[in-house]
TrEMBL record, chain A:
Lineage: Eukaryota, Metazoa, Ecdysozoa, Arthropoda, Hexapoda
A GO MF term: ubiquinone binding
Binding site for heme b: H105
Transmembrane segments: 130-149
Family per similarity comment: Belongs to the CybS family.
Protein name per the record: Succinate dehydrogenase [ubiquinone] cytochrome b small subunit
Subcellular localization(s) per the UniProt record: Mitochondrion inner membrane
Membrane-topology annotation of the record: Multi-pass membrane protein
Organism for this UniProt entry: Exocentrus adspersus
Reported function: Membrane-anchoring subunit of succinate dehydrogenase (SDH) that is involved in complex II of the mitochondrial electron transport chain and is responsible for transferring electrons from succinate to ubiquinone (coenzyme Q).
TrEMBL record, chain B:
Compartments where located: Membrane
Name of the featured protein: Succinate dehydrogenase cytochrome b560 subunit, mitochondrial
Membrane-protein topology: Multi-pass membrane protein
Keywords, comma-separated and alphabetical: Heme, Iron, Membrane, Metal-binding, Transmembrane, Transmembrane helix
Matches recorded under Pfam families: Sdh_cyt
Main location: membrane
Source organism per UniProt: Exocentrus adspersus
Coiled coil region boundaries: none
């Protein structure tokens, strides 16, 4: 293709010596753009792999998960301490923290379940989106309910005990 | 051949088309190649693609023998879902139910269903918590890159099961 391009431009010039020179130089000039690209890739291997990961992530159901993941794990670790602590020493602060952490934790867990099981290939394109919306509603309502319970009643810790 | 047409095309193509009697140049015209950036592939999920291609779903759970590893993993998810249901029931129940939650707990304790039955109910409530708690630690250790050989996965699996069942029994006896 590049060869044809050169030939065409040389036809415009209508000079045979020029044509022969272009043909001579053609191989070097065709290889230049590609080698240039390769060099750039080698220079930034991290960005190259990163963009590849992004492509894979957007092709799946969820978006880039690399920032949320550490937060999810931090909440999980926090729950390991919060659950026993709020049962052993029930108090309003721990109860409210537990309510928020539990709701966040089960929301992410159920979100994974919804995405895994309520899939477009089985339920069609609409129901999975509705299910995810419903999950957001339920999670928000539960958070509100648990906080209400902590303020107006005995609290989560006491109930569990 | 192509070279001749290309060479002639730019300069003489127009004149030749006018003077052409045989109609040959209506078919053989000078072609201009234009470089365009490649169109990015349409964003399509795994399921959407398979739906478009009308592919059937491959069998998954039914073709594997049950193993400790897979069963513990499924139970982890199942207990998580059960715990979510408990949390949702408590959260929504606190708002929706006419009486307060402790009232219902007292009613349940006063109802004459026997202490063993109460313990069974407590075990049903406690086991998902203990299981998800201990297996959650196991999962977090895997996330940290520890205990990932098959042997270690089985050992931690049995240890976790023992801890979960014993702590659930301890909680339900309280």
């Amino acid at each position: 293709m590049a060869l044809a391009l050169f030939l065409r431009s040389s036809a415009r010039l209508q000079a045979l010596p020029n044509l022969s020179r272009c043909v001579q130089f053609a191989p070097s000039s065709t290889s230049r753009p590609f080698s240039h690209l390769v060099q750039q890739l080698n220079k930034n291997p991290i960005s190259a792999t990163k963009s590849k990961v992004n492509v894979i992530a957007t092709r799946g159901m969820s978006a880039d998960h690399s920032k949320l993941w550490p937060i999810e794990k931090a909440v999980s670790i926090a729950l390991l301490g919060l659950v026993p602590a709020s049962i052993i020493t029930p108090n309003p602060i721990l109860d409210n923290l537990l309510a928020v952490a539990v709701v966040a934790h089960f929301h992410w867990g159920l979100e994974a379940c919804v995405i895994d099981y309520i899939r477009p290939i089985i339920f069609g394109p609409v129901i999975p989106k509705l299910a995810l919306g419903l999950l957001y509603l339920v999670s928000a309502a539960t958070l509100g309910g648990l906080l209400y319970y902590n303020h107006n009643c005995i609290g989560i810790g006491c109930t569990a005990f | 051949m192509a070279l001749i047409f290309r060479l002639s095309g730019k300069r003489f193509g127009q004149q030749m088309l006018i003077t052409d009697k045989s109609g040959l140049f209506n078919f053989v015209r000078p072609v201009t190649l234009k470089a365009k950036p490649a169109l990015s592939e349409k964003e399509e999920g795994h399921d959407e693609r398979n739906m478009r291609l009308k592919r059937p779903q491959s069998p998954h759970l039914t073709i594997y023998a049950p193993q400790l590893t897979s069963m513990l993993s499924i139970t982890h998810r199942f207990t998580g879902m059960a715990l979510s249901a408990y949390a949702i029931a408590l959260g929504l129940g606190a708002v929706v139910l006419p009486e307060s939650i402790p009232h219902y707990i007292e009613e349940l304790e006063c109802a004459e269903i026997g202490s063993s039955c109460i313990s069974a109910i407590k075990f049903i409530l406690a086991f998902p918590i203990t299981y998800h708690f201990w297996n959650g630690i196991r999962h977090l250790l895997w996330d940290a890159g520890k205990f990932l050989t098959i042997r270690e996965v089985y050992i931690t699996g049995y240890v976790m099961l023992a801890l979960a069942i014993s702590s659930a029994i301890a909680l339900s006896a309280m």
